[in-house]
Each structure stands twice: as structure tokens, then as C-alpha cells.
Write the C-alpha cells for this entry.
Amino acid sequence: MSSLTYVRGYLVRLLIITGCLSALISWYFVSPQADTAFTELNIMNMNISLFTLFVGIITISARYIRTIKAREKYWPYQLYAMVLMILWVIMGTTVGLFSDFYQTAYLSTKITLHIAILGQIVFFMASGAYRVFRIRNLRTAIFAIGAATLCALNAPWIAIPFPQLDPFREWLLSHPGMAPGRGIMIAGAIGACALGIRVFLGLEKGALRVTEAA
Amino acid sequence: MVFEGLGNGSAMIPIILSEVGQFLRTGRSFQLLLVFVLGILITVSYFLGRRGKLWEIRPLEALEAIWEGVGRCAEMGRPVMILPGISGLGSPETLAGLTIFGEVAQRSAEIGVTPISSASSSEVILASEAIIRSAFTSAGKPELYATGKYVRWFGGDQFSYAVGAAGQVIADKPGMCLQIGYFLFDVIVAAETGSRVGSIQIGGTLGSLNMLAMFCDYVFIGEEIYAASASISRDKMATATIAGQDWVKLIVIVLLIVGAILGLAGNTDLYKLMGM
């Protein structure tokens, strides 16, 4: 057995089982040893995640530089992104992440862009709602009427002059709306536990499949 | 523990329970019991599966639509886009999404459809790269794989990922967009863009299911993503574990009904027991 097969076949699984067991023991039992093991593994996980961030930046840079050199489609945007990435790294390392200058620059760009995207989302939701709430049969009619009622009862031009409708809106949200939502969450939690057990048993092929085939 | 001087065995039980109780964290005993029961039932169903017991699983419409979508992509000469969401590898939804991703990528690679993807978390990006490499290798076409060609990263922020994925949809015009994993509001941007380029939309998540359902043609509702991840590989052993999962759901449904009846009768014993 080669050392690589050993690492991929056994060591990775051993680490996963140790990590899962330490997390479970630490959650359910008072055990300082399990707490320490879980914290250590968590720190290792964070370090690996941080390392993958560098790999992500290297990948994106390699791709963008190739596109810019070949003057492929959208190359000016990618040049702009590359210049900004370098500028932000220089700025962060020179003035510090928590300096007023950096924070102002960061918030005034990021928050502005976020708000722009949120504005776009409103139109996307309206477009999606138009497609979804079209009445085709009895089931979609009930669905559309329920949605239209909730929209109307949340709109200030109806909710403010008719405050007596508020209990009906509350009832719609907290009874027919909440119950299936909780049902989905409970079933989802059971499904997540089952997935965890499949990972334990080596049946879940997701990311682990990669280590076997690579 | 010192048990000297105890006259009979029954007197030891409260002492043992008290000692065990000191090791258990308060309010988590019932949770532990439920996880323990879940583990036993899933292991039982797994071993029954190993002994030849075949479990009938209800066909998932969305799962069937995935294979139709891959075929549609092949006919149209368009790529298939798979988005595993904005969470890291610690999320069970992302893990389930990656399993489906692997199977779809492999089928796509086999019939000459290009699988493309993007994710928010850099660790998921690496996993996705490895999955696509593995898919091309398994399909006997390792020469087609190139790092950064199929999987793109637009940053760790939720919205930068969403806008990047939407841009990728516009640029590549996939025939099918598969969004299975952990999503928040970002799903609206990518999914609506997918609708506009005429791709089949198939989605599955837990928290933002309502938003995802607005834009998708087929949806995995809640835990169906976990059932799909177990049954997509057609592995009998993985499918058998769904039976154990269903037994636990039955127990939970019984608990819900009994709890509701007791609650209406003014009895809170079950509620207190679950909070132990």
C-alpha cells in the first residue's frame, strides 16, 4: 500500500471519525478532553479553510491574467478586478484592516453594492412571483389567493386603515405558514443526522469520493 | 464511585443515574437518546440491506428531471451548471449537494456535456474542482480537465457569489441549473437569471426553500435532498439507510401527535421529558 493510498483511504476517514466523535461527545457530555480535541480540530479546520482562500485567489488570478493577456471577452472587467484586488491588499497591509480609512472605503463600496443587489432582488422577486402565482387549477388558485392576501395585509395602505385584519395576517403566518415550515425543518434535521451516519459508514460519496478517485 | 455499604442492587440505581447525570449536559439527554435511536435504526436498516433486503423508495420527480436535464443539455450543446451554495463543507446541505454534483458531473462528462460550477466557500471550490477532475477521469477523458476552467470563484461574500454565478449563467447559457445546497437571498439572483436564459431549474435546500421554489421547475423539498444524495448513486446500502431515517420520522410524528393531545389536555410531562 502506497503512503498516498494510506492517507486517502484510512487517515482521512480516521480524522473524520475522530472529529465527529469529539464534536458529539463535547456537545452531549461534560468532558474537558473531548472539548480540547474538538477545539484543536476546529482550529486545524479553520487553518485549512484559510489556506484554501489563498488557493482561490491564485486560481482566480491565473484565470484572469490568462484572459487579459489573450484579450478575451470581458477582459477589461477582469483587469479592473485584478487592479482592485492588488490595491485592496496593499491598502489593508499598510493602513490596517480596522483603520477608519480602510473601513470607510470598504463599507462605502461593499454596502453600496449590496444595496444595489437588494434593489435588483426586489424586481427579480416580482418577476418570479408573476410566474409562480398564475392561476392554472384549484391548487394554484388557493396558493395565489393566499399569497395575494398576505401581500395585501402587509401593505401599509391596507394594514394601517384596517388594523382589525392584523390578527388574520398573524394567524396565516403562524398557523398554516409555520406548521409546514417546522415540519420541513424537523425532517431536514433527521435527514442531516442520517447523512452524518452515512459519512460514518463510508456510504456518502460526496467529497469523500474525490479522495478515492483522485 | 464507591458503593460500599449498599445493601441491595435497587438502591444503586439512583446513585448510578446521578453519577451518569453529572457527565451529561443539562437539557441534551433527550436529544442524545433520539440520536442514539436514529443511529441504531439506520445501522439496522443498513445491515438488513447488506443481507439482501431491498427497500422501495418513492421516485423523486426532481431526481428524474436531473437526468432529463442532462440529456437536454447534450441535445442543445449547452453546459450543465451545478451550484452547491454559499456554505462550507461543514454544512450537511452542502455535502448532500456535492454528492449529487459528483454523479451529475460524471454523467455529463460521459455524454460530452460540460459541467460548470461556482461556490462561495473556497473549500467547496477545491472540492468541486476535485469532483470535476474525478468525473472526467472516471469518464476516461482526463485530458479535458483544466484547473479553473469549469469551477469559478467570485469571492467569499454571499452577493459577490450570487452576481458572479448570474454572470456565469449569462455567459455560458447552461441548459440546466442545479442548485442544491445551503442558500440565502443569493439564490434569487442566480435562479432568476437562469430562468431568463431558458435553462431547466432544479433546486433543493432547507432554509430558503420558499425563495428557491419561486424560480425552480423542480424542487427537492427539505430532507429530499438527503434522500436524493443517498439514492442518486443507486448504491443499495446508501438507499437502505433512508428506511431507518423514515422509521425515526415515524417516531417523531407519533411524538408530535401524542404531545399535541397531551398539550391540549393540559399535560406538560412530554414537553418536560423532551427538555431534559
Summary: The longest helix of chain A spans residues 32-70.
